[in-house]
Design goal:
The chain is mostly helical. The chain has helices at 8-13, 15-25, 44-70, 83-90, and strands at 6-7, 29-32, 38-41. 1% of the residues are buried.
């Protein structure tokens, strides 16, 4: 269930409750600092699940790219100067970059 974002001062005053809600109820809370700066408070377990899902999605993209290359449908560089170059060639955001 989505709720309206909380201002940072209000979130600070309710932090214990918000953490308990995230951990025990798996309910995320969006916190806004301004109209453009927002963050989401979630449990560590939910965060780990999101990271796991992202890795699986990225692995699927890599497998697809390798299969397409093997069929001759995609050109790929065979060596990379950096991790960023590899990710760019595969069409993936670099780790830490917003996808």
């Amino acid at each position: 269930m989505a709720t309206d974002p909380l201002g940072i001062a209000e979130a600070r005053s309710q932090l214990g409750t918000l953490v308990a809600r995230a951990v025990h109820g798996h309910q995320p809370t969006t916190i806004r600092r301004s109209t453009t700066e927002r963050a989401v408070l979630i449990s560590e377990a939910d965060y780990e699940e999101l990271l796991r899902a992202r890795r699986e999605l990225e692995a699927g993209h890599v497998a697809e790219a390798i299969t397409a290359h093997a069929r001759g449908e995609r050109e790929m560089m065979m060596t990379y100067d950096s991790k960023e170059a590899l990710y760019a060639d595969l069409g993936l955001p670099t780790p830490g970059e917003r996808s």
